[in-house]
Amino acid sequence: MKRTCIVGAGEAGKFMVRQLIFSKEKLLDAVCLLDDDKQKNGLVIEGVPVVGMLVDIEKAIEAYAIEYIVLAIPSLAKEDQDKIIQRAKKAGVGIMILPSTREMLSSRIPAVPRLDYQVLLDRLEFTLNYKQMHTEFSGKTVLITGAGGSIGSEIARQVKACQPDKIILVGNGEGSIYEIDQELGQDYSSIEIIPVIADIRNAKRVEDIFSKYKPDYVYHAAAHKHVPLMEKNIQEAIQNNVIGTYNVATAADKVGAKKVVMISTDKAVKPTNNMGASKRLAEKIIYYKNEHSNTDFRVVRFGNVLGSKGSVVPKFWKQICNNQKITLTHPSMTRYFMTIPEASKLVIQASALKQEGSIFILDMGKPVLIMSLIEKLFVMAGKEMDDAAIDYVGVRPGEKIHEQLFNNSELKADQTCDQIFVGKAHCEHSEWNRINFLMKNYHLQTEAVLKDTILSLANEGGKGAYAKTN
């Protein structure tokens, strides 16, 4: 449980104290309250003392070893809210904001409190060795594809903190690339930030970009990742995830990039859908390139990333906060989870590992039962789950009830670095020939034939060996 300070000892604060104390899910431990009403100072609410005023936040964090803050003053002005948020961030603690009464009354849709996704993890969050990466990136150029996305933009932020010479932000969305470019350029540091609008499906454009900037490190985050959408758009999955990866890998090889890290997914393991199969084929392209190039090509597989665009958790959170019916596919559904920051840190750290291997996966602990996650979200929202209505909508086309991080044939007993699985995978020459044929002729096939083809190709082969690290 995270030691929690509740800011506000009024009705909202009292409600939150009771919710945290009597909830079955023990996520947060209420240890103290703060309130600007001097008459409340010294009061004890359900065993939790009021220890000071809002000005004392930093003192309370230090004195009570606070890890998390719940801001429970619905009437607090947004300007004052933002100041508390900044103070919490500066102190390195998480924070959740209860919606104001004014916000809820002025909108047909109730305000949704901010959610700290790290609280949902039942393990320590993965951390990046910034000192090591600063040495690794010194004087280097780093190129990120999909740099406007939730993962790509966070990779860009983390890379900047490691202080390379240049960061090339490549993306197809003008608005998102503009936003991350503006954000990274705010402090006028010596790091050159270069925004590039490009579609990775355009081989000539990708080749020109790599030829111009000659990146040392490439983080390939651009991809279509939504399972239901790709079930209905298989050609797009092939064009973007397979051909796009081939274009990036080929261009990186041609200019002699030092390392290329491609972001993949646990859905690429024994895939049953178009998205997973297309990412599995992209992995095989990386494996083949790694064996036929001086460039070090690597794959990082993710579980579900909490808070990323299209993630199911923000949908659940919104439904809970708005008192809506919860839509869940299956009561036994499980998933592996990680936060956006640790996913991005993993990608960067994987590029610096000295161990030979082509696949890197974060040890995310045991898979999480989605129903258990929903229960935690109810606790975070300060609501009782007993009154919730859950609509089981059924498993969607191509979806699994349980995901895997790797194939059984890829596992071995050796241990390497902390918190990361490291494995070696291979792409047979016959597989490579079939992938090449697919990339050149996919547009001539029906969707049914294409689906059968990519699932067949994605599920064959698979030599490899994993090492779990503890």
From TrEMBL:
Residue ranges of domain Polysaccharide biosynthesis protein CapD-like in the record: 142-423
Annotated SUPFAM superfamilies: NAD(P)-binding Rossmann-fold domains (SSF51735)
Domain of life: Bacteria
CDD domains in the cross-refs: UDP_invert_4-6DH_SDR_e (cd05237)
Stated family: Belongs to the polysaccharide synthase family.
Protein name: Polysaccharide biosynthesis protein
Organism: Listeria grandensis
Lineage of the organism: Bacteria, Bacillati, Bacillota, Bacilli, Bacillales
